[in-house]
Amino acid sequence: MSIILFHHPWSRAAGSVWQLEEVGVEHELRFVDIMTGGQKSPEILAMNPMGKLPILKDGDLVVTEAAAIGLYLADRYAPGRLAPTLDDPDRGRYLRWSCFTPSVIEPAVTAAKSGWEVDTRSAGWGEHAAMLDAAEHALEGREYVLGDRFSMADAIFGGTLAWMLSLDLIEPRPTFTAYAERLAARPAKKRAEERNAAIAAERGLAA
Questions:
Q1: CATH number at residue 18
Q2: Contact indicator for 102, 109 with CB cutoff of 8 Å
Q3: Residue 86 lies in a domain
Q4: Are 104 and 125 in contact (CB under 8 A)?
Q5: pLDDT in tens, 52-75
Q6: Whole-Å CA distances, 151 to 90, 94, 166
Q7: Cα–Cα dist 120/10, whole Å
Q8: Could you tell me the residue range of the domain that residue 161 belongs to?
Q9: One domain for residues 72 and 98
Q10: CA 130 – CA 126 distance, rounded (Å)
Q11: Tens of pLDDT along 141-179?
Q12: Pick from 14, 122, 123, 203: CA 20 to 30 A from residue 102's CA?
C-alpha cells in the first residue's frame, strides 16, 4: 500500500486518521509505541528527526506535521473537494486558518497552560484572549471555515478546537461547541474515532 500513516491513537496522528477518512484513499496505519519511546527509533528519526508523530509516507515522499499532512492529502487527492483550487478565491482563507492552528492556537494554549511569561508583542501567537477572539471570528456567520462548505481546514482548525474542548484546554464558547458538534456528526470523523478506539483497545491502552 502506497500511503502509510505512522500512528498512535493518543498522538496527533489520531487526527490524521480523520483526514485520511475524509479524503477516502486506501492507506495503512502503522502503530508506533510512543509509550516505550518508539517514536525515537532509528526508523522514525530517519523520517522525522523531531521524533514526533504523525508521519505520512506516500510512496517515497515523507510528510510530517499534522497540518501539512492534511493540506498535502487534500491537494493531492481531493482538489476542489476538500481543498480549494489554486485559482479559487477561498484558497487564501483556507490556508490562513489551517496555518493558524499550529502557529497560533497550539502555542497560545500551551503558553497559558504552562504559565509562561512571554512578550506578546514579539511572540507569534500574541495574546491568548486575542487568539480566542480570532478563532471565533473565523466562524462568525459560518457553518465551516469556508461558509457552508466543509474543507480540510475544518479537519485541521476544527479538529484542534474540538480536541482542546474535550480536554478543557480552551474556553467553551458557544461558537466553538456548536462547531465541534457539527464536525462530530461527520461520518468520516465517526469512522476515525472508531478506528482509534479499536486500536487503543487492541493495544491495551487505558481510556
A1: 3.40.30.10
A2: no
A3: no
A4: yes
A5: 999 999 999 999 999 999 999 999
A6: 11, 8, 22
A7: 31
A8: 91-186
A9: no
A10: 7
A11: 999 999 999 999 999 999 999 999 999 999 999 999 999
A12: 203
Which grid cell sits at 142?
Answer: 459560518
Residue 159: closest CA among 93, 100, 87: 100
Rg (CA), the chain: 17
Q: Are 1 and 28 in contact (CB under 8 A)?
A: yes
| 71 located within any domain | yes
Q: Compute the half-sphere exposure of residue 116: CA atoms within 13 Å on the CB side of its CA.
A: 16
Q: Does residue 15 sit within a domain?
A: yes
b/e sequence 84-99, b meaning 16+ C-beta within 10 Å: beeeeebeebbeebbb
Crossing angle for the helix pair 128-137 and 106-114, nearest 10 degrees? 150
What is the C-alpha separation between 47 and 73, in angstroms, rounded? 18
Q: For residue 1, name the pLDDT band (cuts at 50, 70, 90).
A: low
Distance of CA 83 to the CA centre of its chain: 15
Are 46 and 131 members of one domain?
A: no
98 and 19 in a common domain: no
C-alpha cell at 73: 492529502
Length of the chain: 207
In DSSP terms, 56 is beta-bridged to: 5, 63
Residues 127 and 96 reside in one and the same domain: yes
